[in-house]
Protein backbone atom coordinates (compact mmCIF):
# COMPACT_ATOMS: atom_id res chain seq x y z
CA UNK A 1 0.00 0.00 0.00
CA UNK A 2 2.52 1.36 0.26
CA UNK A 3 -3.44 19.17 -4.98
CA UNK A 4 -19.10 36.68 -21.70
CA UNK A 5 -18.96 36.77 -24.29
CA UNK A 6 -20.94 39.42 -24.48
CA UNK A 7 -22.29 40.10 -27.55
CA UNK A 8 -24.20 43.19 -28.31
CA UNK A 9 -24.95 45.48 -31.21
CA UNK A 10 -22.82 48.39 -32.28
CA UNK A 11 -25.00 50.93 -30.56
CA UNK A 12 -24.60 49.22 -27.19
CA UNK A 13 -20.83 49.04 -27.67
CA UNK A 14 -20.69 52.76 -28.38
CA UNK A 15 -22.59 53.46 -25.18
CA UNK A 16 -20.21 51.40 -23.06
CA UNK A 17 -17.46 53.27 -21.24
CA UNK A 18 -14.05 51.86 -20.45
CA UNK A 19 -13.57 51.41 -16.71
CA UNK A 20 -9.93 51.77 -15.59
CA UNK A 21 -8.46 49.02 -13.42
CA UNK A 22 -8.28 49.93 -9.78
CA UNK A 23 -5.31 49.36 -7.48
CA UNK A 24 -6.29 46.69 -4.97
CA UNK A 25 -4.73 48.82 -2.24
CA UNK A 26 -6.88 51.84 -3.08
CA UNK A 27 -9.43 52.15 -0.30
CA UNK A 28 -11.66 54.33 -2.46
CA UNK A 29 -12.14 51.61 -5.06
CA UNK A 30 -15.76 50.86 -5.90
CA UNK A 31 -14.97 47.24 -6.66
CA UNK A 32 -15.04 44.35 -4.18
CA UNK A 33 -13.20 41.01 -4.26
CA UNK A 34 -15.59 38.10 -3.85
CA UNK A 35 -15.01 34.42 -3.04
CA UNK A 36 -15.64 31.64 -5.56
CA UNK A 37 -17.60 29.64 -2.98
CA UNK A 38 -21.06 29.32 -1.49
CA UNK A 39 -20.01 30.89 1.79
CA UNK A 40 -17.02 32.27 3.62
CA UNK A 41 -15.72 32.84 7.12
CA UNK A 42 -15.41 36.25 8.66
CA UNK A 43 -11.77 36.02 9.78
CA UNK A 44 -12.73 36.15 13.45
CA UNK A 45 -11.85 33.80 16.27
CA UNK A 46 -14.44 32.26 18.60
CA UNK A 47 -14.43 35.44 20.70
CA UNK A 48 -15.14 37.74 17.77
CA UNK A 49 -11.58 39.09 17.57
CA UNK A 50 -9.55 39.30 14.40
CA UNK A 51 -6.47 37.08 14.42
CA UNK A 52 -3.18 38.89 15.04
CA UNK A 53 0.37 37.61 15.16
CA UNK A 54 3.85 39.10 15.41
CA UNK A 55 5.53 40.00 12.14
CA UNK A 56 8.75 37.91 11.86
CA UNK A 57 10.20 39.60 8.76
CA UNK A 58 9.71 42.62 6.49
CA UNK A 59 6.73 42.40 4.18
CA UNK A 60 8.64 41.93 0.93
CA UNK A 61 11.76 40.21 2.27
CA UNK A 62 13.02 37.64 -0.23
CA UNK A 63 14.04 35.12 2.44
CA UNK A 64 12.58 33.87 5.70
CA UNK A 65 14.18 35.13 8.88
CA UNK A 66 16.35 32.21 10.00
CA UNK A 67 18.25 34.22 12.60
CA UNK A 68 16.15 33.45 15.66
CA UNK A 69 18.02 32.01 18.66
CA UNK A 70 16.85 28.48 17.79
CA UNK A 71 16.16 26.62 14.55
CA UNK A 72 13.04 24.97 15.94
CA UNK A 73 11.54 21.56 16.61
CA UNK A 74 11.61 18.63 14.20
CA UNK A 75 9.16 15.83 14.92
CA UNK A 76 9.60 12.41 13.31
CA UNK A 77 6.70 9.95 13.50
CA UNK A 78 8.20 6.59 12.60
CA UNK A 79 5.69 3.80 11.94
CA UNK A 80 7.08 0.28 11.59
CA UNK A 81 4.40 -2.02 13.03
CA UNK A 82 0.63 -1.73 12.72
CA UNK A 83 -2.48 -3.16 14.33
CA UNK A 84 -4.20 -3.25 10.94
CA UNK A 85 -3.89 -6.85 9.64
CA UNK A 86 -3.29 -6.02 5.97
CA UNK A 87 -0.40 -3.66 6.73
CA UNK A 88 3.00 -5.34 6.77
CA UNK A 89 5.88 -4.19 8.96
CA UNK A 90 7.89 -1.47 7.26
CA UNK A 91 11.35 -3.05 7.33
CA UNK A 92 14.03 -0.43 6.75
CA UNK A 93 12.11 2.50 8.23
CA UNK A 94 14.40 2.68 11.26
CA UNK A 95 17.32 3.36 8.93
CA UNK A 96 15.33 6.28 7.46
CA UNK A 97 14.52 7.55 10.92
CA UNK A 98 18.10 7.42 12.20
CA UNK A 99 19.53 9.05 9.07
CA UNK A 100 16.93 11.82 9.00
CA UNK A 101 17.33 12.55 12.72
CA UNK A 102 21.09 12.96 12.24
CA UNK A 103 20.55 15.19 9.19
CA UNK A 104 18.05 17.46 10.95
CA UNK A 105 20.39 17.77 13.94
CA UNK A 106 23.12 18.84 11.51
CA UNK A 107 20.70 21.58 10.36
CA UNK A 108 20.37 22.66 14.03
CA UNK A 109 16.88 21.28 14.70
CA UNK A 110 15.80 19.98 18.10
CA UNK A 111 14.75 16.50 16.97
CA UNK A 112 12.06 14.43 18.68
CA UNK A 113 11.30 10.88 17.50
CA UNK A 114 8.07 8.98 18.12
CA UNK A 115 7.67 5.29 17.32
CA UNK A 116 4.49 3.44 16.34
CA UNK A 117 1.98 5.86 17.87
CA UNK A 118 -1.77 5.50 17.56
CA UNK A 119 -3.56 8.40 15.89
CA UNK A 120 -4.82 9.94 19.13
CA UNK A 121 -1.25 9.97 20.48
CA UNK A 122 0.10 11.50 17.27
CA UNK A 123 -2.49 14.25 17.61
CA UNK A 124 -1.64 14.79 21.27
CA UNK A 125 2.04 15.31 20.48
CA UNK A 126 1.31 17.60 17.55
CA UNK A 127 -1.18 19.65 19.53
CA UNK A 128 1.31 19.96 22.39
CA UNK A 129 3.92 21.39 20.01
CA UNK A 130 1.43 23.69 18.30
CA UNK A 131 0.50 25.21 21.68
CA UNK A 132 4.13 26.01 22.52
CA UNK A 133 5.68 29.45 22.24
CA UNK A 134 7.81 29.39 19.07
CA UNK A 135 8.83 33.05 19.26
CA UNK A 136 12.53 32.15 19.39
CA UNK A 137 12.26 29.51 16.63
CA UNK A 138 12.94 29.87 12.90
CA UNK A 139 10.48 27.19 11.80
CA UNK A 140 9.04 23.75 12.51
CA UNK A 141 9.46 20.43 10.69
CA UNK A 142 7.30 17.29 10.83
CA UNK A 143 8.12 13.99 9.13
CA UNK A 144 5.83 11.00 8.82
CA UNK A 145 7.26 7.61 7.84
CA UNK A 146 4.40 5.20 7.25
CA UNK A 147 2.13 3.30 4.89
CA UNK A 148 -0.33 5.32 2.85
CA UNK A 149 -2.80 5.36 0.01
CA UNK A 150 -4.34 8.11 -2.07
CA UNK A 151 -5.30 10.91 0.32
CA UNK A 152 -4.53 8.97 3.51
CA UNK A 153 -1.70 8.03 5.86
CA UNK A 154 -1.67 5.33 8.52
CA UNK A 155 -1.01 5.58 12.23
CA UNK A 156 -0.56 2.36 14.20
CA UNK A 157 -4.30 1.82 14.55
CA UNK A 158 -6.10 3.64 11.71
CA UNK A 159 -5.84 5.82 8.62
CA UNK A 160 -6.12 9.60 8.62
CA UNK A 161 -5.77 12.62 6.34
CA UNK A 162 -2.65 14.77 6.60
CA UNK A 163 -4.66 17.94 7.18
CA UNK A 164 -5.49 16.57 10.64
CA UNK A 165 -1.82 17.19 11.44
CA UNK A 166 -0.85 20.34 9.57
CA UNK A 167 -4.03 22.22 10.47
CA UNK A 168 -2.70 22.61 14.02
CA UNK A 169 -0.03 24.96 12.65
CA UNK A 170 -2.07 27.43 10.63
CA UNK A 171 -1.38 31.06 11.52
CA UNK A 172 -4.65 31.47 13.41
CA UNK A 173 -4.06 28.36 15.57
CA UNK A 174 -0.31 28.73 16.14
CA UNK A 175 0.39 32.47 16.02
CA UNK A 176 4.04 32.26 17.13
CA UNK A 177 4.75 30.35 13.90
CA UNK A 178 2.78 32.78 11.73
CA UNK A 179 4.93 33.93 8.83
CA UNK A 180 7.46 31.18 9.53
CA UNK A 181 8.07 27.99 7.52
CA UNK A 182 6.17 24.82 8.41
CA UNK A 183 7.93 21.96 6.59
CA UNK A 184 6.47 18.46 6.20
CA UNK A 185 8.24 15.40 4.77
CA UNK A 186 5.98 12.45 3.95
CA UNK A 187 7.44 9.02 3.18
CA UNK A 188 4.45 6.87 2.25
CA UNK A 189 2.71 5.36 -0.76
CA UNK A 190 -0.07 7.40 -2.31
CA UNK A 191 -1.64 4.56 -4.26
CA UNK A 192 -0.83 1.30 -6.05
CA UNK A 193 0.06 2.50 -9.54
CA UNK A 194 3.50 1.68 -10.93
CA UNK A 195 5.82 3.86 -13.01
CA UNK A 196 7.88 1.83 -15.47
CA UNK A 197 9.68 4.94 -16.70
CA UNK A 198 10.71 5.97 -20.21
CA UNK A 199 14.14 5.57 -21.77
CA UNK A 200 15.68 8.79 -23.08
CA UNK A 201 17.96 8.87 -26.10
CA UNK A 202 21.09 10.99 -26.00
CA UNK A 203 20.53 14.55 -27.22
CA UNK A 204 21.70 15.50 -30.67
CA UNK A 205 22.65 18.90 -32.00
CA UNK A 206 19.33 19.22 -33.79
CA UNK A 207 17.32 18.96 -30.54
CA UNK A 208 16.70 21.99 -30.04
CA UNK A 209 5.49 48.62 1.15
CA UNK A 210 8.21 48.09 3.43
CA UNK A 211 8.11 47.06 7.12
CA UNK A 212 4.56 48.21 7.88
CA UNK A 213 2.24 45.56 9.33
CA UNK A 214 0.50 43.28 6.87
CA UNK A 215 -1.91 40.35 6.76
CA UNK A 216 -1.13 36.85 5.58
CA UNK A 217 -3.41 33.89 4.75
CA UNK A 218 -3.76 31.38 7.59
CA UNK A 219 -2.43 28.62 5.34
CA UNK A 220 0.63 30.47 4.05
CA UNK A 221 4.22 29.30 4.62
CA UNK A 222 3.66 25.54 4.47
CA UNK A 223 5.69 23.12 2.42
CA UNK A 224 4.77 19.45 2.07
CA UNK A 225 7.22 17.15 0.31
CA UNK A 226 5.79 13.75 -0.62
CA UNK A 227 7.95 10.78 -1.55
CA UNK A 228 5.80 10.08 -4.61
CA UNK A 229 3.02 11.55 -6.72
CA UNK A 230 -0.68 10.91 -5.99
CA UNK A 231 -1.81 7.43 -6.95
CA UNK A 232 1.63 5.81 -7.06
CA UNK A 233 3.87 3.49 -5.07
CA UNK A 234 6.71 4.74 -2.91
CA UNK A 235 9.70 2.40 -2.76
CA UNK A 236 11.76 1.40 0.28
CA UNK A 237 14.88 -0.73 0.45
CA UNK A 238 14.74 -3.05 3.46
CA UNK A 239 18.40 -2.42 4.32
CA UNK A 240 19.18 1.09 3.10
CA UNK A 241 15.79 2.73 3.68
CA UNK A 242 13.42 4.47 1.30
CA UNK A 243 14.63 6.06 -1.92
CA UNK A 244 13.17 9.42 -0.94
CA UNK A 245 14.71 9.56 2.53
CA UNK A 246 18.08 8.38 1.25
CA UNK A 247 18.06 11.15 -1.34
CA UNK A 248 16.71 13.80 1.04
CA UNK A 249 19.35 13.10 3.67
CA UNK A 250 22.17 13.04 1.11
CA UNK A 251 21.11 16.35 -0.39
CA UNK A 252 20.56 18.09 2.95
CA UNK A 253 23.87 16.81 4.31
CA UNK A 254 25.82 17.95 1.26
CA UNK A 255 24.08 21.21 0.38
CA UNK A 256 21.54 21.90 3.13
CA UNK A 257 23.24 25.10 4.29
CA UNK A 258 24.05 26.29 0.78
CA UNK A 259 20.86 26.23 -1.31
CA UNK A 260 17.26 27.17 -0.57
CA UNK A 261 14.88 24.31 0.23
CA UNK A 262 12.98 24.26 -3.07
CA UNK A 263 16.26 24.01 -4.95
CA UNK A 264 17.34 21.20 -2.63
CA UNK A 265 14.08 19.34 -3.21
CA UNK A 266 14.54 19.68 -6.97
CA UNK A 267 17.85 17.85 -6.64
CA UNK A 268 16.23 15.31 -4.30
CA UNK A 269 13.73 14.60 -7.08
CA UNK A 270 16.64 14.26 -9.51
CA UNK A 271 18.36 11.69 -7.28
CA UNK A 272 15.18 9.64 -6.82
CA UNK A 273 14.30 9.79 -10.51
CA UNK A 274 17.72 8.93 -11.94
CA UNK A 275 19.57 6.90 -9.31
CA UNK A 276 16.93 4.33 -8.30
CA UNK A 277 15.05 1.46 -9.90
CA UNK A 278 13.17 -1.32 -8.16
CA UNK A 279 14.87 -4.71 -7.95
CA UNK A 280 12.25 -7.43 -7.57
CA UNK A 281 13.07 -10.01 -10.28
CA UNK A 282 10.84 -12.59 -8.54
CA UNK A 283 7.85 -10.29 -9.15
CA UNK A 284 8.18 -9.19 -12.79
CA UNK A 285 5.36 -6.64 -12.62
CA UNK A 286 7.16 -4.79 -9.81
CA UNK A 287 10.64 -5.11 -11.31
CA UNK A 288 12.60 -2.11 -12.67
CA UNK A 289 10.02 0.48 -11.66
CA UNK A 290 10.70 4.19 -11.08
CA UNK A 291 9.52 6.92 -8.70
CA UNK A 292 9.33 10.73 -8.59
CA UNK A 293 8.70 12.86 -5.47
CA UNK A 294 6.07 15.59 -5.38
CA UNK A 295 6.15 18.95 -3.58
CA UNK A 296 3.23 21.13 -2.54
CA UNK A 297 4.39 24.56 -1.50
CA UNK A 298 2.70 27.58 0.02
CA UNK A 299 6.01 29.20 0.90
CA UNK A 300 6.13 32.93 0.29
CA UNK A 301 9.91 33.41 0.52
CA UNK A 302 13.13 31.49 0.01
CA UNK A 303 13.98 29.12 2.85
CA UNK A 304 17.67 28.60 3.65
CA UNK A 305 18.98 26.70 6.65
CA UNK A 306 21.78 29.16 7.34
CA UNK A 307 24.52 28.56 9.90
CA UNK A 308 23.63 29.05 13.55
Automatic annotation (TrEMBL):
Polar residues biased stretches: 18-28
Active site: 147, 189
Caspase family p20 domain mapped to chain residues: 70-193
Spans annotated as Disordered: 1-28
Gene3D superfamilies (UniProt xref): 3.40.50.1460
Similarity annotation: Belongs to the peptidase C14A family.
Name by which UniProt lists this protein: Caspase 7
Species whose genome carries this gene: Aedes albopictus
Gene: CASPS7
